[in-house]
């Protein structure tokens, strides 16, 4: 499996030939899908009137393809129905004209215009196209088939961006591992450097207070030196690096797991800075924090 971004766009259009009965003639079915980052799976549909029944199966289909993201799904159905002849209700029109002539003669009214007469309700019979249940079912099946194509296109877009994000994350993980190794091999952590630091600190303390117990002071200094050791933090960083590489290699919806690891990376970087008793280690810790922040920003885009 490969990584998927939660951001993507797809537009998919198909021509529907009217099903078995062909009552509606050809139609153009267009789906537009957009997705952005989200904590869970949230879908909002925008459907034409009369096609609300498509939403439940469409929602199920989308959930089979994706596990996270905020989605907007818009459907357009552009019909090109065949033209129908307009029928005139002759008997009704004759009655209307008779009444009009009587009123004109009786009250001296102006003759009615043609457009006025045709605008009267009932004069024109405009056949209303109706869809059978079978035709409606055929159209909805075509709409869902088109949605399947749109979902596949959106998945391709999200995977393409996910692949790019994966390459960025891999580079950032390599940088974290490199910084941990630099801290591990830093000259300030050598036995000679630690001994020299302790000796200098002890000399200052003994000069300031000659009455203090020298043995006790050395014990306290040794305790502080042990407390300031960053080996545990470096070991945990190595473990987190290995876990992150394994997750990225496996792929799939790993955004939440990587987000948890980014928090662990940040915790170790903070502890490393707080324990540091050398400027070089502090500098490495600050650089590590910057890389971890960048890592976490990228992880927010992953499914």
UniProtKB/TrEMBL annotation:
Keyword annotations: Endonuclease, Hydrolase, Nuclease
Keyword Amino-acid biosynthesis tagged: no
Pfam families for this protein: YicC-like_C, YicC-like_N
Ranges that cross the membrane: none
Domain Endoribonuclease YicC-like N-terminal: from-to ranges: 3-165
GO molecular function, one term: hydrolase activity
Name of the protein: YicC family protein
Organism in which the protein naturally occurs: Phyllobacterium salinisoli
């Amino acid at each position: 499996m490969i990584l998927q971004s939660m951001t993507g766009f797809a537009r998919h259009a198909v021509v529907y030939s009217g099903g078995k009965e062909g009552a509606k003639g050809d139609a153009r079915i267009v789906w537009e899908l957009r997705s952005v980052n989200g904590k869970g799976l949230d879908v909002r549909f925008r459907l034409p009137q009369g096609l609300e029944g498509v939403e439940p199966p469409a929602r199920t289909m989308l959930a089979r393809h994706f596990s996270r993201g905020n989605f907007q799904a818009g459907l357009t159905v552009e019909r090109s129905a065949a033209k129908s002849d307009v029928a005139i209700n002759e008997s009704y029109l004759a009655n209307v004209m008779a009444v009009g002539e009587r009123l004109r003669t009786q009250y001296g009214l102006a003759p009615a215009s043609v457009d006025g007469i045709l605008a009267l309700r009932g004069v024109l019979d405009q056949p209303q196209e109706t869809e059978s249940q079978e035709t409606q079912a055929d159209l909805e099946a075509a709409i869902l088939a088109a949605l399947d194509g749109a979902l596949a296109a959106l998945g391709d877009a999200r995977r393409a961006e996910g692949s790019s994000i994966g390459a960025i994350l891999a580079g950032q993980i390599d940088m974290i591992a490199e910084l941990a190794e630099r801290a591990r091999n830093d000259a300030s952590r050598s036995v000679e450097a630690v001994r020299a630091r302790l000796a200098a600190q002890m000399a200052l303390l003994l000069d300031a207070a000659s009455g203090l117990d020298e043995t006790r002071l050395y014990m306290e200094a040794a305790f502080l030196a042990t407390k300031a050791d960053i080996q545990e933090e470096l070991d945990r960083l190595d473990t987190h690096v290995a876990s992150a590489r394994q997750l990225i290699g496996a792929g799939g919806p790993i955004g939440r797991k990587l987000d948890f690891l980014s928090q662990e990376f940040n915790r170790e970087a903070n502890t490393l800075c707080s324990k540091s008793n050398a400027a070089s280690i502090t500098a490495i810790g600050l650089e590590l924090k910057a890389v971890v922040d960048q890592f976490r920003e990228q992880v927010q885009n992953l499914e």
